[in-house]
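cache lookup: miss for this entity combination. No prior model stored, computing from scratch. Input as submitted by user K.M.:
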Amino acid sequence: MRARLIGNALGLALSALAVTAPRAAEVSDGVVKVGILNDLSGIYSDFTGRGSAVAAQIAIDEMGGKVLGSPVELVAADHQNKPDIAANLAREWFDQGRVDMIADFPTSSTALAVMEIAKQKNRVTMLSAGVAMAAINEKCSALNAQWMVNTYALAAGTAKALLKAGKKSWYFVTADYTFGHSLEKDASAVVEAEGGKVLGVSRHPFPGGDFSSFMLKAQASGAQVIALANAGSDTVNAVKQAAEYGIGRSEKQVIAPLLTYITDVKSLGLAKAQDMYLTEAFYWDYDERSRAFAETYFAKMKRMPSASQAAVYSAVLSYLKAIQAAGTDEAGAVMAKLRTMTIDDAVIRNGRLRADGALVHDLLLLQVKKPAESKRDWDFYNVRAVLKGEDVFPKPSDACPLNAKG
Amino acid sequence: MPDISFQALMAQLTIGLIGGCFYAMLSMGLAIIFGLLNIINFTHGAQFMMAAFLAWIGLTQIGPWLGYPEFQVNFWAALLIAPVLVALFGMAIERTLLRRLYHLDHLYGLLLTFGVALVMEGGFRYAFGVSGQGYEPPELLQGPVDIGFMLLPKYRLFVVAASLVLCLATWYLFERTKLGAYLRAGTENPRLLQAFGINVPVMITLTYGFGVALAGIAGVLAAPIMQVTPLMGGNLLNIVFAVVVIGGLGSILGSMVTGLALGLIEGLTKVIYPEASTVVVFVIMAGALLLRPAGLFGREV
């Protein structure tokens, strides 16, 4: 009898253990590990780079460094904008590094490579800097979220606003590679759909050095908008050289860079960049909440966060909250939870994660201030409009099988 | 060919000429260094970039660093000082590193200078980021000037004039003066020249310094046109090497003429088919190598 009692007690204890054991394993291998994979040394390191890891750390600190009682750790590495290097790093992180989620990817080819591996290993990717449409179209994955923006939304945001202001004739200066082409294609589609007209296109080699001949051709076309479908130093040089020739300085003809980060405006200077219209997912000086986050960031980096860096913060924060709410860090369950949440933090407003991985949220239409209007360093933009996510993000595409399931 | 007015064509050719001036200045420095030292100087782009950065630092940074925010080194002073500083830096590299490689194959010099370039680019990237810095042209040269068929920024006109003067002066120095004769003799037969009482190692160091200084001048001239970034030189260097190869490795006149001509051809291509404007240089290079392996102005050996 006694033995049976002890046996029963033991059995009870064991079964209690059996119940708690999976509870302890809710967070696999006892730690939630976030990886930041981006460009730490190359042309995209200013708007992602070390600042992205700093932003991720701010999000982790905000959660108290723990989720479901397990510690949250952060790792970061340089993918050098090469898909093969990104793929190797990701594999190593997933297999040996116990990494549960990887974010950032300023080069879309690296994002697409890692998304594929994450799918096989059942881990999560969050593209806070990757803007390619392929990530939510033909290459879409149920375990991926495009957290900031994509080329269509950027192009549509700026294009719709300018068309509404009566600027109907457009000329494109396009970087001659996939990214530039897709930006140009998306923007021209919007222009034509809204009754505008594309007068011409100049495609320049990448990277281009002297843009004066392209900008002069654009000027000669008489178009009301010279749209720059390029990025980084190409955009900066094009704007700088246009200013030399006095192009884009009148009401009759404006320059609209389709993908610009605050770091580009910083490097151009307001004297050259003034009056340009652009679309960004985040501006640090938008409201109280964005400023509070930005000041925390500034204290650590001595710079204001770019939209990409801010999006890393939002992505990591939302990911950890989703783990908390789902009670597990299993990739599928976390993503399912994320899809039910309304994302509303210092960076992303009115955000809803779609089945195809597109995060639909409000974007900002911004105009660069004149030097006299700017009160301090990084005081660069006037917010001209808040663009509703439904108006600027693309409709779910049939190319993504996840959309077809409906 | 798309319909394009004579005016627009002239404007595009003028812009091509400006690009050609940079090619000419840069390829000339490379040609001198290769012709006299047998070194393929892959640091050239980084030295170009360094001079542009020095000009920018002089204009915007040095005052605050020294505690006198009003103090700045203006464009004209930078045009003299930056190339000298870059040349001194180059000569230090020649004395300490390159010198050890003269008895080896070209390839070692190429690898060394390539490595030095990567280190320099990395250093500037670490210190100043990659987005780049803006540099305003001097007040005297701001604004456009009407040259008949187009409004050309005054500064660009100045670049064309300055670089043509520089190229011709360099050509004269190396091909028509006694000093130039010594330099050329030094490459043909350094021992014999040394026997005549000329300090050949010092001469070689100075020659390298001169070639680097040309890159430095081009760098300062480029600062108001291109965004000053750590990668600005590396991007340009590929084309400049093609120019040197087409012109004939080591030929000073060849690199000058080819540089200007390729600038014009590039400008023309931008009118007709802009997508091909970079590739055209390499197509010409391939053609030149097939027909005249020593380059258009090179001596057959």
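stored under new cache key. Residues 246 and 287 of chain B are 9 Å apart (CA to CA).
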